[in-house]
Amino acid sequence: MKLLVVERKNPPFASHLALPGGFIDAHEPPIIAATRELYEETTLKLLPNEAIPLRARGVKGRDPRGPTITLPFLFQLSSNHPPPAVKGRDDAKRALWIPLQQLTQELAFDHGAILCEAQALYWKLFPSEATLHYDLCGQTIFAPTQEWYQSSEEIIFYGGSFRPWHLGHMACIHAIPSCKQHRIVVIPDKNPFKEKNGHALSEHHCAWAFYLKLRHELQDTACAIYPGFLSKESNNPTSSWLKHIRQNYSLLLGDDSFVSLAKWVDVHAFIAPPTLLQNIYVVPREATKDTIDESTRWIHSLNPHVKVTLLEHHPYRHLSSTKIRNHLQ
After folding, report:
1. Are 116 and 231 in contact (CB under 8 A)?
2. Cα 76 from Cα 290, distance rounded (Å)
3. Rounded to an integer, what distance in angstroms lies between the CA atom of residue 205 and that of residue 210?
4. Of the given ranges (72-86, 112-126, 192-206), which has the lowest mean pLDDT?
């Protein structure tokens, strides 16, 4: 899969790669502005009715020139033909089609987050959201294969900020039996207890670069990595997306997260019946046996059918992304 990008001619982000686009003229519909700017910068003409609207974006700091709201659109072209010729014009030094696997540099503004949202549309985890189809294998577009979705095995969600990813995170994955590791979906996300609304760009600029770095860290595993929540501009409680899952699933948690479950937003929505939650795999860190037992009893008071599986200790359990970030600062 290839993406059309431009190399910016002018500040801000001069010489950075970016998505084609620009400002809306007075009384101009956003989609007309998008296709006009696309043509002006790349010579590519596309029809407005082919556009797939993505989420509006306006988080503070996304544009160094000042508060700016972006209305992005996705166009999916047929893979049966080579991509059409393009040429950089106007504000673009050049325009080029680049394979996603080779798009390793940081994109300008928050265009990496827009790309993460677009990629998430190729997943089928959330049936309530629009999904796209592409006639390449799942690995090529970073999404699971059709066979993966059709399996009756539980999906194991492993969520976290993962900023940065470290050996403790990898040890959590390896603590799951090897026969189940291909069902793990790593969910990089925002932690509502650690991050404040309105600061989506505070820790790393390009969500796509962060996503590719995670893929590199996990390249020797069978895990999938869901990119969709890297595009969020606000906190994203686990309960807000688990309710969309239509397959049996389990959670992989550190014991610090496990013992704080009662504080999670709307936690009853995914623990109390009816629920598709099968198991909570708990990786030992620093919680005591008493607090783990207390949390287990609380969960079983809501739903006695949810299993709680305490996994083996690992040598990296004292590593913390928060401590690593604070040390680097």
Report:
1. yes
2. 53
3. 9
4. 192-206
**What is the four-CA torsion angle of 242, 245, 248, 249, rounded to 10 degrees?**
-40
- Pair (191, 78) in one structural domain: no
Do 25 and 161 lie in one domain? The reply is no
Rg, Å, the chain Cα set:
21
Q: What is the distance of C-alpha 150 from the center of its chain?
A: 22
> Which residue is listed with tokens 């040890």?
171
Q: How far apart (Å, rounded) are the C-alpha atoms in residues 50 and 119?
A: 17
Q: Is 169 found in the same domain as 76? A: no
Spatial separation of the C-alpha atoms in residues 198 and 61, rounded to whole Å: 9
Query: Quick one: 28 and 174 in the same domain?
Result: no
Q: Which amino acid is at 164?
A: P
- Backbone region of residue 61 per phi and psi (left: phi > 0; alpha: psi in -120 to 50; beta: other values): left
Residue-wise over 169-199: b if at least 16 C-beta within 10 A, else e? Answer: bbbbbebbeeebeebbbbbbbbbbeebeeee
In whole numbers, what is the pLDDT of the chain averaged over residues? 90
The separation between CA 319 and the C-alpha centre of its own chain, rounded to angstroms, equals: 23
DSSP 191: -
> Residue 283 CA to chain centroid, in angstroms?
23
Distance (Å, rounded) from C-alpha 175 to C-alpha 181? 9
**With left for phi above 0 and alpha for psi between -120 and 50, is residue 249 left, alpha or beta?**
beta
Total domains present in the chain: 2
Q: Could you tell me the two tokens for 318? A: 């004292």
What local confidence, expressed as pLDDT, does residue 128 receive? Answer: 55
Query: pTM of the prediction?
Result: 0.91
Q: How far apart are CA 108 and CA 106, in angstroms?
A: 7
Which range marks the domain in which residue 113 is found?
2-120
